[in-house]
Amino acid sequence: MLVDTPVSRLLVDWYDVHARTLPWRTPPGAKVRPDPYRVWLSEIMLQQTTVAAVGPYFAKFKGRWPTVEALAAADEAELMAAWAGLGYYARARNLIACAREVARLGGFPATEDGLRALPGIGAYTAAAIAAIAFGERAVVVDANVERVVSRLFAISEPLPGSRPRIRALADTITPDARAGDFAQAMMDLGSAVCTPRNPRCDACPLTSACTAYAQGNPEAYPVKPAKKAKPRRRGIAYWLESEGAVLLVRRPDKGMLGGMRALPGGEWGDPPEAAPPVPATWRHVGTVEHVFTHFALSLDVMAADIPARPVEGEWWPVAAIEEAGLPTLYARAAALGRASSEMLAL
Ligand code: SF4
């Protein structure tokens, strides 16, 4: 006997009316399942990309290579050129490797395990193809489903630790019947109704089953992991002005902001190493706070004006400093140095 669940019934009923019409789909409840080639191609293209962006690429690929066998025989350079613009080129290389393997097997495997063994097909994609193209009951969990399930059950544990629980709970609401329509309904609900911000609960078929809705705080889920405090480094940047110009240097090619123009200053650390470029009466004119991917930097800006230029180097007109191509960090430091010099000149 096929089993459905209250949630799946509500959702599939909603899907019967609201399903998006997409070129790789068949209508809800259709007797004929969609072509696995179309489902696979769309799922690979949709990784990291939107439905709107994929549409023209899908049409181009289907026109040029209408079957998986045609794609298996494609010229690799031509395929890569057709993929250009979709990004993540490893996917395009896997696409052709997968097409060749499917052609060798004589067709797509009809099970989640068989699909998972193909090049470039991960757990989510295997489950999606198994459910949509073959009607197999498979627990399909992507970021949209994670969000919907986290809200339905108000899962308080933060991601990513909550993933096994999300999967287990997604399993409890996945029906045996119409597995493909259920998977696509979850996708549509996550993308159009149960959105990350401002979910449209008033248009959702699952309000009666949704704990986050009952609590009045859907956006609190999924709970994000606490951000780790980034290590902090300190640095010094010297604004040395002379005769209407400021001394700039090039940062070493390797390392942060490699090869870019900057104000002089030494290594960042705690404490920073940075002897001034010349002895002068240096004044502290401010601190720039900047966050890089792996650390936060507090850059103290020191300024001095000297009558003549005692050091060789690139002296850049202060009036044209915006054209020096300074990275944001040093542009902000330069703004502090320049403002301080202008104040002194008043
Ligand atoms: S009721 Fe709101 S929070 Fe709950 S599943 Fe629907 S859209 Fe998401």
TrEMBL record:
PROSITE patterns: ENDONUCLEASE_III_1, ENDONUCLEASE_III_2
EC numbers on record: 3.2.2.31
Alphabetical keyword list: 4Fe-4S, DNA damage, DNA repair, Glycosidase, Hydrolase, Iron, Iron-sulfur, Metal-binding
SUPFAM superfamilies per record: DNA-glycosylase, Nudix
Catalytic activity as recorded in UniProt: Hydrolyzes free adenine bases from 7,8-dihydro-8-oxoguanine:adenine mismatched double-stranded DNA, leaving an apurinic site
Superkingdom: Bacteria
Xref: Pfam families: EndIII_4Fe-2S (PF10576), HHH (PF00633), HhH-GPD (PF00730), NUDIX_4 (PF14815)
The HhH-GPD domain, residue ranges: 45-192
One annotated GO biological process: mismatch repair
Free-text comment on the cofactor: Binds 1 [4Fe-4S] cluster.
Co-factor(s): [4Fe-4S] cluster
GO MF terms, alphabetically ordered: 4 iron, 4 sulfur cluster binding; 8-oxo-7,8-dihydroguanine DNA N-glycosylase activity; adenine/guanine mispair binding; metal ion binding; oxidized purine DNA binding; purine-specific mismatch base pair DNA N-glycosylase activity
Family that this chain belongs to: Belongs to the Nth/MutY family.
Cross-referenced PANTHER family: ADENINE DNA GLYCOSYLASE (PTHR42944)
Role, per record: Adenine glycosylase active on G-A mispairs. MutY also corrects error-prone DNA synthesis past GO lesions which are due to the oxidatively damaged form of guanine: 7,8-dihydro-8-oxoguanine (8-oxo-dGTP).
Protein name per UniProt: Adenine DNA glycosylase
Organism the protein comes from: Sphingomonas chungangi
